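Our example copied in:
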Amino acid sequence: MNKKSSALLTVGTLTLLAGGGVVLTNLPDSFKIQRVYAATSRDITVYPKDFLTYFQRNGSAAGFDYDLATYTQTLTPNKASQAGNVTLKTKVDMSQNFTFTGKINLGDKAQNAGGADGVGFLFHPGDTNVVGAPGGAAGIGGVNGAFGFKLDTYYNGVGENSFTPDPSNFKGKPFGAFVDGLNGQAKTIASSAQSISEPSNNNFVDFTMSYNGATKVMSVTYGGQTWTQDVSSFVGTNQAMSFSIAASTGAFMNLQQLRNVNFTYTVAQGTVIANYVDEQGNTIAQQETTSGDIDTPYVTSQKTIPGYTFKASNGAATSGNYAANDQTVNYVYTRNQGSIDVTYIDQTTGQTLSKKDLSGGTGDSSNYTTTDTIKSYTDGGYELVSDNYPSGGTVFTDTAQHYVVNLKQKLVVSSEQKQVNETIQYVYEDGSKAADDYNAPPLNFTRSVTTNQVTGEKTYGDWQAQNGDSFGEVVSPTIKGETADQLKIGAISGITANSADIQKKVVYKRNQGTIDVTYIDETTGQVLTKKDLSGGTDDPSNYSTADDIKSYTAKGYELVSDDYPSGGTVFTDEPQHYVVKLKHGLTESTDKKAVNQVIHYVYEGGGEAATDHNATVDFSRTITTDRVTNDKTYGDWTADNGDSFASVTSPVIDGYTADQLKVSEMTGITVDTEDISVTVTYTRNQGTIDVTYIDETTGKILTTKDLSGGTGDDSGYTTADTIKSYTDKGYELVSNDYPEDGTKFADDPQHYIVRLKHGTVVETENKSVNEVIHYVYDNGDKAADNYKATIIFSRTITTDKVTGEKTYSDWTADNGDSFASVTSPVIDGYTADQLKVSEMTGITVDTEDISVTVTYTRNQGTIDVTYIDETTGKILTTKDLSGGTGDDSGYTTADTIKSYTDKGYELVSNDYPEDGTKFADDPQHYIVRLKHGTVVETENKSVNEVIHYVYDNGDKAADNYKATIIFSRTITTDKVTGEKTYSDWTADNGGRFAAVLSPIIKDYIASQLKIDEMTGITVDTADIERIVVYHKVPAGIIVPPVHPDKPSQPSNNQSKTPTAKAVKDSKPTDVLPSTGDSQKSQIVLTLLGIIAVIISPLALLLRRRKQ
């Protein structure tokens, strides 16, 4: 070990510098290390004491010193028409997290007391000295690409160019909200808006703004309220944004201030944009954009742009240092000139038709196409062969451009056609059309005609048959009733294009036909007549049977059948035979005759006793007459309603007796029987009547009335007077079966009864027993309406109107003999001394009236409200209440809850009614649950790894490699106890730095081909710095190639998207490790290791060279 160290030290001397740096001396020139660079960081924390180092005061804010005693910056005094702001002097890197904390004083007046306007926080991609409009714009409006957050203490109901109206639901109320100002007009994001407390007593309120660079989510906490907004659409692709805080007043005013500002953020890199434009300012090449740490150098360069020559640059310097705001360098170029020619050639003759010469600035459009010229030639008969001139035109270039358009004379081949037709006509002998002409498919002949469209010359080809050179055989059509003179037209061959059209004719002659119609008498079987007809086939017969049939029916015939067509017919080639059948018509009539019977009914002294009885037996026969011959035929007589007279019972006549009780049946009546007459004689009878009057009450007969007279004579007696004499004495008629209008004497004795009874007068006697229940409070006041019930008893008194005697019935209860049980009414908050008045039975007519009193006493209710700390599980306090049932409790939880929320508690739930409650019969239990409010903050810390790549003379060999592991933890503060709880630190990529391959530099060898992976990085690990030195390989030495896939990138075991960010510094920084650094020994050993790594391969290479 010691020997190796000694050998290394003979190569050079290691010196520790007073400032903590390391220098190797007494080395060969190619191995010297002149400087060691430390890592630089863009992570900044602004502390209250450093506020003015990082922020610029503007407007009214510039008129107030920063108070170092309280770390307070006034933005606006309590005066009208003030506008003040502070702007961050550098831009914020929006890809990284940041946290802003402090306190805000919004003043001492609400809007209704003349207070305004509030404080706005602005982010935008423009320069750091750009600020937004005051007033309703909240310092956010009026800046393109802006967004932010505002604490607004003045409601603006009408918008302006720089802002839109505030949400109407915050009229007259202060609120906090995120603001969208991308289009230059500040628009409140209504969904994010929340009411805030009115400005009061110039109180400073805690304010926190945190931002996550990965998720682009921003959170704001003010006065215990939190706002959260995804701002990714506002940040967009802007890596760097300016930040300012603004306040303003108008006619309304407030003192508005910042205090205790802490701001941890990452400074955005500066950006330089190189534009490449022509003298008119048009872009002619891709814009070049570079970024780097502020105050580090940048260099831009000219480009070689085809067609242009560099003239000058303007704007920012072509090289310099990166600044907070974007810098733009414009490289201006002049245009070169170029020429174009287009030659038009006739390929048919080989001659040049024309030539077009063009000239213009390089890169300018020629504004020429070959379209119109080619069209002029194609209109003249040419056709395009080729055109190598670009169809969309072209631009002038530094070199001459030559194009050729080839055309040829266009030949148009057309077809000439000719037809030969065959027509056959079909006609009758008179020359008229018999059938449609037959037109054979024409025979088509064609030949080609070639025309030169430029010269007009034509060339003809031979005629060619397209569909054969013959016409086929044609059979003449069949026409019914006609015969053709040619049954077919034969085939015709050898047709040429010069053959004439062929015409043929076929003539049809007419056929003849006959018709006969025979008329037959079916009654005699003889032929009456026959009709013979003849004519040309298909001609109408012009005959119908109607007239002949009518002549026969007029003579008495009737048509049986007629097979001759009703509409006539036509002659055919075959004979036609038809038959008409008729028969004699017959007329039937009826001949009638009657035989009569009469029975007379008379008294013995003469005179009609009853109406005569008449009966008739009717006879009939048919007479049939032949209407042709008039001969008659007679049928037999038949009895229509029987051939006898039925027996007839003599009518009964009261008081009389007939000498024939029945006239017997008479049978065998014929058409020749004479009419019959019979007489029945009646003799007078005698009869008696008695009427008995009975007292049904005693069962005794009062009197009897006896009457006698001729049967049928009126008795002349009614019972009315006798009955009246009894009813006048107090009797009542029960029944009377003697006819009311009297009666007549009959053959049999007649007995009638009149029944009477003693009349009575019935009276009802009533008596009642009452029950009354009184409902009263214990002070005697009426509590409810009285309950009343009554039982009614009744009996009847009956007086005999004949004797005057009285009879009494028993007493009866009309609706029962008991009072039902009665449930006492329920009165909220009271209890009755009798819940129910019991049933009372056995009530009699002699029972006295009943009175009952039910007394109500007031109930008492209790309520308890328990306040529970859910965080500790303990009871904070209990509120006990009591009072009369139904009375209002007069208590709400609002004040008690407020007293706890003022101490940092948060309400979880409250089941006590918001508007209070009333005491009830049952106890009521309510619970108010609260928990400790908390404030959660995120604390970040990072560990950096920097690898410097330098030549052995100390110059930069390649961009630094940087990687960062960010550790984060949350700090949760209990707002009640003030206790803080810290989460564990977590690393965003598992606490490891990946292995890094050193870049390959031609003709150089690195002291370390790879920086190994480092694991187990914790939040307490110090920043790590490595140096890789590149040494020139001596001429003639071949270095074995090493080809990492991607130099200077993490090895394959590195996560593809590590959160630990690898960046390259654009310039090393001359910062050396501090004196007494614990890493001194590690640096010495590292440098000795580097030298050993360099010398070992070089020694091996030199040994190989000697061999």
